[in-house]
Batch of 2 targets.
Target 1
Amino acid sequence: MEKFDVAIVGGGPGGSYAAKTAAEKGLKTIFFERAEVPGNKNASGCGLGQRWWRDFPEMMEKITQLPSYREINRCSFIITDVDDRHITTIQTGRNSLPEKRIVYKGQNRGWTGASIYRSDLDKLLADTACSAGAELRTSTLINDLIMENGAVKGVVTDSGERIKADVVIGADGAHSAVAIKSGIRKRWKKNEVTLVPQIDFSCNESKMDDVIGNAEWVWFGPYCGAYQVNFRDGFHLGAGQWLDVWDGKPVDLLKQVMKIPLFQSMCRSIDAKIREFQIHLLPWMPEPGSKTYGNGVLLIGDAGGFPCPLEGEGVWHACWTAQLAIETAANAIGKGDVSEKSLSVYEKLWKESPVGKEFEYGHEYVNFWRNSAFNPEFMKKIVVLLGQLQAFNGPSLVFDWSDDHMTTFNEHLGYLLDVLADPEIKEFGSKYLAPMGRGISRENMEKIADMIVPSIASKIKVLPQSLIKKMFMKQYGKNKVSLQGRLSN
Amino acid sequence: MDGFVIQDYVYRAKNVDTGDFIQFNEEKCDGCGMCNSVCMANLWAVPKNNKTRLSPKYRELCLECAACYAVCNQDAIDFSYPKGGSGIIIKYG
């Protein structure tokens, strides 16, 4: 029986990056992919954040050369009402500040993200791992492990071949056979995992450049929300929801968006046509799975529950945890001790890494989403509010400037006060905005107050910081919701 | 886009056997219907006053998301993936 130092289950970004890192360290490495070609079983957004330029810049340089690459430097949130009418668009993106937080080869990359098809990305990463000396077995499903006295000693392929390894890395996604067969965890609870249907559209590249440019789009309305990730000559329209709150077929969400006239006109203008339907599970939880290591085994990426609790981004997290898992495995193999205790260093490493930082406010992020974009009642109310505020932007009967300026300014002010005094808006605040704050834990309360109070104070110079902090703490500080059970509410 | 039919936009490896990758234990099933509500391929029929049924053609229709396994409170559904190299092919993931 052939024996390896490291056997990695899964040839997605996490598995391939782990294989590359392990091979570069001189470990005898094998990785397994159930598809005929890496990337042929994978669907995700798939946007890569700016932090790629900081943490994996050489890889990012190669990614920008791939056929489906589109540079992304802004995001448009398109808001529609109950009648599918376009209310307003909120834009985030590049500003003119000189600040350069991520610089690579002299260029500011702090605004530059990427959209890339997984069929391109996964192939590139797997090729990189093979070039580094890792062995790749494609068309090979691993659905069992070699277990001895509760310790993982290797993997069993779907044709029954047994392959031994000192350390097995579970990089096999949300539905991870490694996690379950090793006994590290059972399947995810329904409030820990989302189901994400996604439709791929083919488009005309140059028309996309003209109409969409370097942007991702997000659709928000009373139906909840959907993301539109734009590639060189196509886009993904997708939407997710936690399994504990499904009330119907998830694809209905996407059909809702496809009925919006603005969506249809966008499709006409870039020659968009439906090309493929995909659906996948995406772990989305306040903190990674209860355990990410076991006897002779480590879990990375989606298998470990690592996607970002704020935006569900997962490829960056997979590559980071891949590096840390291999660092742990290499040290353990060097010491001749791959026991659970020895591999527990992994948890310490990821908690101290930028990945751990993502989960410091995990409960707050997840609570925010569950109470906002994932709550249809919230979304119904927020579009009414945005519609009222939007009246300040464009021409309207009330603000048509046909009176003298002072009268018009007065009307503006009166309208704003009416909006704020509206019982519906008040109810919106107490019923829908307050629950987002209630997710904030006692221990994070002080930290968040210290972070946001100075920035408010810098804009409202008349109020002393101490007073703002007192007001903030008065609003949310009395909250005694325990950490446990917050998600079960 | 009104007549959008999911299976028209799914690609599959040809002439490769998937093997049996969903095991359904009828004894454990309590007929809650969650599998039916999450399945985009409509593989789970839950007729009233009758036993839940897995489509006999699931090997040719499954989209491999594993959601049925994830939602089953009774542990009546076991899901592994189709054999290596078989099943769906995602071209533009």
Note: The two ends of chain A are 51 Å apart (CA to CA).
Target 2
Amino acid sequence: MKGVFSLSVISGILNTMIGLATPFLYAALGEVFAQTSGVVNLGVDGIMLLGAFAAFYAALTTGSLWLGLLAAALVGLVLGLLMSVVSVTLKAEQGVSGIGLYMFGLGMSSLLFKVLVGTVKTVQGFRPLPVPLLADIPVVGPILFRNNVLVYGAFLLVPAVWWVLQKTTLGLKIKAVGQNPAAADSVGISVNGIRYLSVCIGATLAGIAGASLSISLLNLFQDNLTAGQGFIAVALVYFGAWSPVGVLGGALLFSVVNSIQLWMQVLGVRIHSSVAVMLPYVLTIAALTVTINRMRQPAALNKPFERGES
Amino acid sequence: MVEMGAEEAILTPGKTYPHGARRSLENWSRVALNVLLPLVGVLFALLVGAVLLLILRANPLAAYAALLRGAAGTRFGITQTLVKATPLLLVGLGICIAFRANVINIGGEGQIIAGALMATWWPLTFHAWPGWLLIPATLIVGFLAGAAWGFIPGILKARLNVNEILSTIMLNAIALQLMNLLLQGPLMDPAGVAARTFLAQSAQLPPAVWLPRLVPRTLLHAGAILALVLAVAVYIFLWRTTIGYDIRAVGLNPDAARYAGIAVPTFQALSLTLAGGFAGLAGVVEVIGVQHRLLEGLTSGYGFTGIVAALLGSLHPIGLIPASILFGGLLVGADTMQRAVQVPSALIDAILGLVVLFVSGSALWSRRWAARRSVRSQKSGEAEA
């Protein structure tokens, strides 16, 4: 074990953590939008899978990573519309419709992968883009400022989402619709319109989260690429008490555990890979039990809006 | 709650309840609606599937014909459909119980694994027991193992208000890794170790624990009959016992149930535990009825497909029987379709997801219809008075 926790290993662990946190951040921050407006989108994992495939396939065939990113975002948007129609307009039980969306994404991404690609291929993902000056800071520079553009985007999204939700009229409307849809409706806010928008923003970000796996972090696609990361992202929203900063904390906590697990295997620490892989899931359950700020849960979460019902 | 069942039987004070012919006619039309709406959902999903097939340059008619032929065209196909329907029915029964208490059990996969692990370890350990003792014992311990795996999210929800959807999904992943760990370790087939193949599967179970086959030279086993009997038992449990009544009351209106003195969290935990037990049984019959050993991929997604079957069966144990057979057939036919038109069977997985989306979306109409009907019967009740 000697030397395992040397400075270089620690900085390696932290650097891996930043990369691993990226898909969690996109997906969970997107889910913050949906849930703040009162809709639980449990289909995040399915959207991530199809987004990951779309990005991978577009990058593979056109050679353009930006087109890949666009494809992932569009796929997310379309699936967000589907989720909105079923959960907002048709007022489906959100837990069930979300699972349906997940199953659809899982099956569809597998189908498309088998038909269009067939074998495991890799793409050259986004390259690291060192930030001038900052990248040269010892220790901190390599960890934080030598990542690719999708990673920077994920971390910049945290203040952006905070700003939209706390400082803009749109944010106020989203919160109103999630807290008291009847009151929001009575002052002329379109409850369903705001919910459509929030779910679609969330789903678009979930699509990008998938892209951050397939063309930034892993640079490949395979069946069930996400392995449930979308569900962990939903759990992070509860854990982070519907606040972007809380979500950031949760995403970093998860990623550091995952990163340590990966590094332990790299360094040959004797731990069975199954036990190591199990860790983040056990941690998720533990995190769900210690969610403290339940008071901040949007009051109308999981409740479809029907005019005339209180 | 997905409002689909024959549930309005719980009386609401101040509401008029018409009797006689019209009442029974309305009951029948409600049953018809509960059957028709989900079927329309399936039809829609198959239509979308047909469009996908066209995009993939396959002939949808040929594909679906192959699917039907595989599922029901031969004697072996029919028995295979029933073999696949058995775990779906068992998992679905648990899903029904949970849903009735307003709890969504996504943990079927993990609970199946828990039951399957126990159904492997127990007969391998007590291999000298005679079949008449070993089979019931294995069924019981497998049920208990699944129940234990369902109890964890149950108690977490009851005590700490942990979202059961998320905790059950995490427990699925944990159970899967646990199975990998055991299959690569203590449960690995000694023959595989000796032959240095190191296949991730257990040793074959003693023949005493094998469930009898119902049709010679097929895989159809006595677990199918067990599942049917249990479907009736769950119906009686939910509609003819006090505990069942309490579970349904909790699901219909948690606030009213709490007001009536029912311990809501306890019944939700209980329903998740029972759901886990039934999924565990599905794992047991797969091991001692079909495979006779534990191997990777044993769950085959039954934990999720069971949810689809439960929804399609209107969350009713008896409705679940035809729904399980339908989806069992879909799973069997998917392989035939894959061979006939070279479209991966993953298409069926995508279609199953669409079925869930459409059926959960269609609940709106059944709810609207129920609301309109209750207004109408109230009006006519006033007129009669």
Note: Chain A touches chain B at residues 42, 46, 82, 85-86, 90-93, 95-97, 99-108, 110-111, 114-115, 227-228, 231-232, 234-235, 238, 272, 274-275, 277-278, 281-282, 284-285, 288-289, 294 (CB under 8 Å).
